[in-house]
User: Fold these one by one.
Assistant:
Number 1:
Amino acid sequence: MVKETRYYGLLEVTPNASESDLKKAYRKKALRLHPDKGGDPELFKEVTHAYEVLSDPQKRSIYDARGEAGLSESGGMGGMDPQDLFSQLFGGGGPFGFGGGRPQGPRKTKDLVHRVTVSLEDLYRGKVTKLALTRNIICGKCGGKGGKEGAVRTCSNCNGRGIRIMLRQMGPMVQQIQQACDECQGAGEVINAKDRCPDCRGKKVISEKNMLEVHIDKGMKGGQTITFRGESDQAPGAVPGDVVIVIEEKPHERFKRRDTTLFTKTEVDILTALAGGQFVIKHLDDRALVVKIHPGEVLRHNALKVIPSEGMPSQRHHEPGDLFIRIQVEFPDSMPLDSIPLLEKALPARKPLEQFPKSIMLEEVEVVEADARQHELADAGEAMDEDHEGESEPRTQCANQ
Ligand SMILES: [Zn+2]
Ligand SMILES: [Zn+2]
């Protein structure tokens, strides 16, 4: 018969629970109650304290016989930091990294981050791609022991710690320096050469090619990640980390993208722009979009047109955005002289010259082509003015026109 049952109640076990029952119950409760998971810190502390007492056979027998009062009499209330106990149970960082700044134990191997450059075409259509990555796996021959049973010995040079503390005299000061143990190369243990596993040569792990099938979903964006849980390096006594694939969007030569909106520019000859016709835009899949300009309709240079629903698909429901087209009208370099009367007939009359008061002298001047340097100068000057316009599209100016 136990005197009190509050601690058992906190862990939701009966007073005859075994040590492993207690451990299981605490893990379950602690995971749920951990303050980093939004749990109540006070309750977490209480549950942890209950476990601390009940998992210690000596404290448990005091509690069973005399209850909490008995524990405080025997000075057993000291208690440890609940965070420490939690870390002991779950290892270093625990199952969800808390930023407590505590040193992380060798619990989980490093995540492997791999960047994959994906074309806009593949992001538009979606794609499955195979990726071969090399990783360490536990040696099957020795089961990760590195040698025959009993061949592994604790390094006597560093007492298994893998490091040695050296003291160095620096004038009046003594400096402590940590060094990897040279006897065991920081491993903390040694295996005689003849006892080493022939497959891994005592390293406990061997290198293996790991084939991963990466599903690039339609509409994915640069910067998104695809995680393969536990596919990183294996190591004895550690949980393998994850392989994290980071998508990088390859710049496209004709399309720019912002979320589900696509931008492109297209050149249209002046006859089509003024008299109708058609132009075509090769899309990111196996289609080309034919755009008709009806006779009588005029396409202005730099006009912005939209083709609805021909942008990128959204990732969730594959709902497409719009495709924006900036029209670039191609002007001829020169005009045959006999076509000029026809143009004069077809186009609106020339604008009359602006009239000035008599005090203004009219002076005829020549214009010449601007050279490359002058183009740059002009672009920089004009860009300053355009900052205020707040355009929704990245500039698509050609500097070398
Ligand atoms: Zn050593
Ligand atoms: Zn081996």
Number 2:
Amino acid sequence: MPAKKLRSKTNPKVLGKRVFRVSRSRTGLGVFATKPIKKNAYIVEYLGPLLTNAQCDARPENRYWFEVNSRWTIDGATRSNLARYINHSCRPNADPMIRDRRIWIKAIKNIEAGDEITYDYGKDHWNAYIKPKGCLCVKCRAKRTSERAEARAANARKRKRAERAAAR
Ligand SMILES: [Zn+2]
């Protein structure tokens, strides 16, 4: 059975393009709210052909594959799938919702205009694609910044101890 074409049936609840734009982010492209988005709103559908496990086995994996259940995977690599531009965050403001072999990206917090929309890609994807390069999300960058500050403070304490020892 060939992969289905892009399924175009839209969900009336999905806010779609009018509430976000794709533009430059820290990590390349990202998706940013252009209007306030309320918690629990469906922002955009994750679109792409639906693949069976057998079809997945027969082609090279790409990072936009999204497993909807144990039998089906959406290949979201197509450019018309704007949801593919949503970046990962370890402290996300959205979450994918899977229902009837379709995926919607749903707000899990109130999102302000200008905020980057993010969701947690999950442990497997994180380990395979994000960990090797270092996670660039807000939470991980803040953690690295505080670790560096901590290391600098520890060095300063060490230096002061050495200075005091030398002065004796
Ligand atoms: Zn992170």
